[in-house]
Amino acid sequence: MGPVAEQTERRGTRRGVREMSTLVRASISSGIATAADGVAYQLLLVLFTGSYGFAAFVGALLGGVTNFTINRRWAFASTGKRLRNQATEYAVASLVTYAALQTCLFVFIEVLHVDEHAAWVPAKLIAWLFVSYPVQRFLVFSGGSRLQAPVQDAPASERPPIVA
User: Fold this and answer.
1) CA 151 to chain CA centroid, nearest Å
2) Helices (H) then strands (E): counts for the chain
3) How sure is the predictor about 146, in pLDDT bands with cuts at 50, 70 and 90?
4) Are 63 and 32 in contact (CB under 8 A)?
5) How far apart are CA 62 and CA 141, in angstroms?
6) Beta-carbon count within 10 A of 138 CB
7) CB-side neighbour CA atoms (13 Å) of 162
């Protein structure tokens, strides 16, 4: 193998390792946010029996704030996007994810007659795998490199941290 081919192979390997690292960090972030979401969901189901929609909304809100904060600061590559723009994109992505979660919950609970407590885990997994992660990875937190310098025209409070 020639030097150009070796260099290309090394770049591809590094890119794959970075992508896997991003997936692992995003999974950890999502796990923390899902724990907060799940505790709120289960607690609110006990307090407001039969209101799985309300419980899912409050849980999703709490989990969303947790997830955005961790993702912006640690899980995904710095994009240099301003906080307001990224938060708006995240809010739209969260609404789409929430709609997917509600749809899954409805199908599991109303159509398949799965217990409302048990339905939450598979509904969350489906919504995360097919909606939340892809939208966050390829839209909200897209582009950039973890080693990239922050955008200089953004105020210091809105610049992403440099992570080596």
Assistant:
1) 23
2) 5, 0
3) very low
4) no
5) 20
6) 10
7) 8
